[in-house]
Design goal:
Length: 88
């Protein structure tokens, strides 16, 4: 019984951290519940992409992250832009 309580606490901790970083609470809860220490550590180290600068592909006008080198829609090689389009 005490093991289940500890697993629930790890699940809630991973879920809250994941939700703060903009991901699904339930998904991170399951990861933290099934893999207690690893799930919380993964939630802490999870990359947070919401404030990443964006740019637009000049060929198909798809909005992409600034660090993307090849457009995922049209396959064009992208040059480094002069400035970022905007942030999310």
């Amino acid at each position: 019984m005490s093991l289940v309580v500890v697993l629930v606490f790890f699940g809630v901790a991973a879920g809250v951290i994941g939700k703060i970083k903009g991901s699904s609470f339930f998904l991170w809860f399951l990861i933290g519940f099934c893999i207690p220490f690893g799930g919380v550590l993964a939630a802490i180290l999870y990359r947070f992409d919401r404030k990443e600068p964006l740019r637009r592909c000049p060929e198909c006008n798809k909005v992409l992250a600034l660090h993307v080198q090849v457009c995922t829609r049209c396959g064009r090689d992208l040059e480094w832009p002069e400035e970022a389009l905007f942030e999310r």
